[in-house]
Every structure is written in structure tokens, then in C-alpha cells.
Amino acid sequence: MMSGLNKRKVKVFLLFLVCSFLAWFLSNLSESYESRADFSLNYRNLPDTLLLGNNGINSIETKLKTSGFQFLYFKLNAKEIDLDLSKAIYRDGKYLLTEDALKKQIERQLSQNISLIDLDRNQLFVDLYQVASKEISVKPRLDIQFQQNYILDGHPTITPEKVLVKGPMSEIDTLEHIYTAKLELANVSSDFSKDVLLVFPKNMANSIFSVNRVNVEGRVAKFSEKVYEVPIQVTNYPEGYLVKTFPNSVSVLCKATINQLKIISTKDFEVIADYKQLNNSDGNVLFLELTKKPDRTHGVRLLENKVDFVLEQK
């Protein structure tokens, strides 16, 4: 019986001991202390003419005055500070944030119950370097298989059609365009819109691009074919003579959308037979050349490329 009583006393004693320790611990945490805390640095607002190098300082040590609860929180959670690089100054060939600028930026991001006492440095050197910038065009790489009698109506639309690249002049001065990854589509019979990654050139480790993907959009239309009889025009024949061709017109096959074919006429084509190109070995034959065709067609060709002729004196 005495043994059970002793056990209860021990348990009560331990409970009071734990409660006393917790009370003491919480009391101490509520008091203010001066101690050091490390903050990770996030660089923001990089000026357009500068790039951030790979050798920058990633953390800063501070001396703070705050409650023990706050220091305990710092121990358990990652702490980050954003630094505005638009406040950096250029001095003696280097970019830096002064101690005053550092303190102001850090203090703005600390809670009201935290006082910044000191920093581990009186200035922060930032690994920045001057860069040039230019806009370059985007060129799509397409591998599109259409259903029968369907075709791409016009050129694809790229958004954005140009991207900004920033880097050392030695890297970007000869760069004029950038290609997309290959867009492969099969059995296409309707309009399409796809986001496609850009393929960045090699050996440009110090350059950055404004975007890493673009949107490629294309209009797809059903097409048909129509044959037009176009008059043949003979040029550069001898003065005082006339040239008659047999026949005097030629068939031209035009491939276009149905709506386009409705507005195309023979006046939109021009076929020339240049007498100067006559080769005696060809006999009385002139070769034909299509010198004019309507816009926004998807294929135009002569069904005959030569014609017989006679030369008559006026």
C-alpha cells in the first residue's frame, strides 16, 4: 500500500516539475532577447540593362531584438528577405547595396515587434553585369498532315511573334531568330492553336529570353482546283513582224480555297512567251512562263509549258 502511495507522489511531483518547466520556458520565451538570425536573399526588380551572375551572395546574417517566441519561429521556419536591385549603385567597377539601403529594405519586411540592431556587413556586393538586348523573330517548325482536300489557309500566327533576349553582346549580336520545337499534327481538318516550347541556341549560358514558349495558331480551309484559260503574250519579237501562237491560250491549274476560287479570274494570271529565249534547235516552239498569279493561292501551275508559233511579216 505504501508502495502505491509513493508511486502517486512521484507522478504528482513529475507533473508539477513538468508544469513548472513549461511555465519557466514560456515565461522566458515571452521576454525580449538580442540574438542573430540568418535570412535567405531573393533579388527582385533587376534593371533591364543588367543581369544577375551566378556568384551572388545568397544569405545575410542579422542581429535582432525580439521575443524568444519569434527566435524559436526563426529556428523552425525558413526566413527570406527580398532585395530591390533597382536601389543598387555602381562604385569602383562593382554594383552594391549600401548598409543604409539594406537596413531600410530589411526593416520594411520585419514584423513591428522585431528590431534590427546590426548586419554582418556594411554593404552588399551584387554580382551584376552589363548586358545588351534585342528583339528576335520566332520561326515555327511545323509537321502537319492534313485530311484530303484541306490545307493551311495563309501563314500560321505566332504569339508573341518576337521575343526579347538579353545577354552579352558577344552572344546575341548575330542572333536574328529562334525556332520553336517541332509541332506535329496529324489528320487535321480544322483550325488549331497550340503552345510550343522554344529551342534555345547552345552556348548562350549568360543570356536570358523573355519567354520560353509561344502560341502557334493556324487557320485550316477546304480547297478545290479550277482550270483557267489564260491568253499567251509574246514579248521581244522582231520589229516589223507578228508572232501567232497555236493555241493562243494555255490552261492554268489553280489550287485555292473555295471562296478564293469564286473571286479569281483569268485577269489575275499572266503567261509570257519570250521570243528572245528561242533556241533554233527547238524549231517553231516557244517556252511559256507564268509571270503573274493571284495572292493567297496554294498552288498554281501551267498544264503546258510550251507552244507552237509562226512568225509573220507585217
For this structure, the CATH topology of the largest domain is: RNA Polymerase Alpha Subunit, Chain A, domain 2
The CATH class of the largest domain, by name, is: Mainly Beta
Largest sheet: 8 strands, mixed
Alpha-beta classification: alpha+beta
Query: How far apart lie the N and C ends?
Result: 148 Å
Would you report the number of β strands?
24
* Average pLDDT figure: 84
Rg estimate, integer Å: 40 Å
Give the DSSP E fraction (strand runs of 2 or more residues): over 45%
Q: How many DSSP H or I helices?
A: 5
**Number of domains in the coordinates?**
3
CATH architecture heading of the largest domain: Beta Complex
Note the run of SSEs as H and E: HEEEHEEEHEEEEEEEHEEEEEEEHEEEE
Principal-axis shape equals: elongated
Protein name: YbbR-like protein
Pfam families: YbbR (PF07949)
InterPro entries: c-di-AMP_regulator (IPR053154), YbbR (IPR012505)
Compact description:
It comes from Flagellimonas pacifica. This protein is α+β, with helices and mostly antiparallel strands.
